[in-house]
Write a structure and sequence with these properties.
Elements lengths: L2 E4 L9 E4 L12 E3 L5 E4 L2 E4 L9 E10 L2 E3 L2 E4 L9 E8 L2 E3 L2 E3 L3 E6 L7 E2 L2 E3 L2 E5 L2 E6 L1 E2 L2 E3 L2 E5 L7 E9 L2 E3 L2 E6 L4 E9 L7 E4 L2 E6 L13 E4 L10 E10 L2 E6 L9 E6 L8 E7 L2 E6 L9 E5 L7
Parallel strand pairs: 1-4, 2-5, 3-6, 4-7, 5-8, 6-9, 7-10, 8-11, 9-12, 10-14, 11-15, 12-16, 13-17, 14-18, 15-19, 16-20, 18-21, 19-22, 20-23, 21-24, 22-25, 23-26, 24-27, 25-28, 26-29, 27-30, 28-31, 29-32
Antiparallel strand pairs: 23-27
């Protein structure tokens, strides 16, 4: 079936839904919970939350597994408290063929959380496209256990907490995921794009995870003063697993191509693992990578004053046995 909730005028400014009270039942603290439905769409709405829900698994929109073809298009999602808490979510999407398009997000811990299953076939074909993320609290787009996800042409500006682990895009345990054409500007934590376990597809070697044509032009957020901040504007980590399910390969594969990084850092950071582009996981004798392609990237990291930390490198690889 097809169900659409939308503003009659087509303007999100004409329908404003405010959540200012936490329900007594912890599982009832979302604006909308869509239970394993097909083809439910929310368009041209403004949804504002003035409290922290105070419970796990709650958000502005929660699409429960196994949802399919759910859409959130042209909406304004605003979290007023900007709480640095795992309870503070915008959209949680548990299903496949979801589309998050042309929305404005402000103030969330996870603004978009694509939450696929760990024990069954991954969620597939979810897209996060041309959204605007501001006042980012932690990790704005989190794609977990996804196949063929696309995170493209989004803009991320502003970082409002002192968390040293924040980033604009975080993917974990994905196959064939594309992170492309995103712009990450202004104050940031130490990482712009974080890729964990980009699995190789055993059934289609061409279905590789790709990070390309992204622009990171930012600086260390003034609210972050920790000397332990790790500066890795693009951070990729792999792992070897003997228990993964088909079509995932125990080893990982990724292409990082045509990205531009310009980052200004505060040299009080003393981390010894800093790099403009950082790869980790495995060693030459026990590699986790089946393929790494790094090509045509521009990396420029500058200190705000003085010199870069002595340990800083533009590229850093812990396992170079499979690098093209």
């Amino acid at each position: 079936f097809n169900v659409t909730f939308t503003s009659a005028t087509g303007s999100p400014n004409d329908v404003i839904l405010i959540q200012d009270t936490a329900a007594a039942t912890a599982t009832n603290r979302s604006h909308f919970t869509i239970n394993a439905s097909s083809r439910v769409s929310f368009q041209a709405l403004t949804l504002r939350r003035t409290i922290n829900p105070g419970a796990a698994g709650q958000g502005i929109f929660v699409f429960a597994n196994p949802s399919t073809s759910g859409d959130v298009i042209g909406c304004n999602l605003i979290d007023v408290p900007q709480t640095n808490s795992t309870f503070n979510n915008g959209i949680i999407y548990r299903g496949s063929n979801g589309l998050i398009l042309n929305n404005n997000f402000s103030g969330f811990y996870y603004a978009v959380w694509l939450d696929g299953p760990a024990s069954n076939t991954f969620a597939a074909n979810n897209s996060v496209l041309t959204n605007n993320f501001t006042n980012n609290v932690y990790r704005s787009v989190y794609a977990l256990n996804q196949s063929a996800a696309i995170i493209s042409s989004n803009q991320f500006t502003g970082y409002v907490t002192n968390s040293t682990g924040g980033c604009a895009v975080w993917t974990a345990n994905n196959i064939g995921t594309e992170v492309s054409g995103n712009n990450i500007f202004g104050p940031m934590s130490g990482i712009g794009i974080l890729i964990n376990n980009p699995n190789m597809d055993t059934l289609n070697a061409a279905n590789v995870n790709r990070v390309y044509n992204n622009v990171i032009n930012g600086f260390q957020a003034p609210v972050i003063t920790s000397t332990a901040l790790v500066i890795n504007p693009i951070n990729v980590s792999g792992s070897f697993s003997t228990t993964v399910l088909t079509p995932m390969n125990p080893r990982d594969a990724i292409e990082v191509i045509n990205n531009t990084v310009v980052y200004n850092i505060n040299t009080t950071s003393t981390s010894t693992t800093q790099a403009g582009l950082y790869f980790s996981g495995g060693t030459v004798t026990t590699p986790v990578w089946s393929r790494i392609v790094v090509r045509n990237n521009h990396l420029e990291v500058n200190p705000t004053v003085g010199n870069l930390p002595s340990a800083f490198r533009l590229y850093r690889f812990s396992d170079q046995s499979q690098v093209d």
